[in-house]
Amino acid sequence: MASFSKDMITSRQNGLVTRISKLSDKKYRDAEGLFRIDGVKLFSEAQKSGIEFEYIFIADTKREKITAELADELEAASGTVITVSDEVFSKLTEESAPQGIAAAAKKFKVSELIIPSDGDFRSIYLSSVRDPGNLGTMIRTAYAFGIDRVYISRDCADIYSPKTLRAAMGTVFRQPISVVDDELAFADDMKKSDCAVYAAALRRDAKKLGAFTIPKRVCFAIGNEGHGLADEFIDSCTGTVFIPITEGCESLNAASAANVIMWEMCRDAVK
After folding, report:
1. pLDDT tens for residues 223-262?
2. What pTM value is reported for the model?
3. CA–CA dist 125, 147 (Å, integer)
């Protein structure tokens, strides 16, 4: 149960305010083991998903509204609830239209590199996806379509970035995610587990998405927004796949391509 501080913070130079405002930067998130949550929706999703909070900040002029709207979540949440002046609150959020609540939460653990040995398994691997908005969108789509696991390379955008969290709309707290350090070993382990690995890449022998039966155990790989997947990784895959698009259109961006592929993977399973 959260405890409510009796004092209101009114100085933007307050030490705690300065510390929490720095969580916009990955190096401070890593050093603190904390990340920041902005807005009513994300706070509610995080609390319901069991995220632990250290501090919850509420803007003074929106205190009455927020405490009424989130009464149950605040009652059940961990951490300390602190009222701050609107001027101070503006330093604690990146929202263009602040809703009046922000929180510093403990980083949740990303799952171990799990590859189930049997049964249907639909997964996606995101390699060097650097745009946090794209990453968050892909995670949100994966959750919406029932993708069993999202694998991401170590150099992808930070899943704790405020931009990733906003784009994922809370699904990052529930979607199983694993980090891959060695993608060649990962592809090999997938195939050893009877899981086909298809790289989204335009090669001469690439299969047309929608024109072949997708295996029940499969992982589709999506590459970097600008450079795609590494040739060595593509060579290690079961095969390649392309999305048919209108002639003259160069390509889809990484998030759009991933969304189309995930829909094709799971459309028979989505009710």
Report:
1. 988 888 999 999 999 999 988 888 767 678 889 999 999 9
2. 0.91
3. 11
CA distance 44 to 105: 13
* CB-based contacts of 25, cutoff 8 Å, min separation 6: none
User: Measured between alpha carbons, how far is 82 from 46 in angstroms, rounded to an integer?
Assistant: 18
Contact between residue 153 and residue 121 where contact means Cβ atoms under 8 Å apart: no
Q: Would the CA dihedral through 255, 256, 262, 265 be positive or negative? A: negative
Residues 6+ apart with CB under 8 A from 196: 190, 215, 217, 218, 219, 238, 239
What integer best gives the mean pLDDT of the chain? 92
